[in-house]
Amino acid sequence: MGPFPISNGNAYILLAIDYVSRWVEGKATKTNNAKVVVDFVKSNIFCKFGVSKAIISDQGMHQITTAYHPNTNGQVEVFNREIRKLLQKMVSPSRNDWS
Predict the structure, then answer these.
(1) What SUPFAM superfamilies has UniProt attached to this entry (predicted)?
(2) Domains along the sequence of the chain with CATH
(3) Which of the four pLDDT bands, split at 50, 70 and 90, describes residue 35?
């Protein structure tokens, strides 16, 4: 998600969602390029939960391979909306303290 106004050097939020349990892992990052995404998946997903059989991408510009099932990204969009709502409620009017 993003870019957002820079907060603590961060402009993006990376999210990973388990479609079965609906568990969400997220992290504020400076960029959302492929290296950042791969490092996020390795350290926040594979190291904690093991290697996944499939990864579904939102087809963002950081994408490394094609999306598995683009039509299942509705759940991601719901989480994105909810996070945006939470950020709008929690941040100051200057919107520079979200991360």
Answers:
(1) Ribonuclease H-like
(2) 12-90 (3.30.420.10)
(3) very high
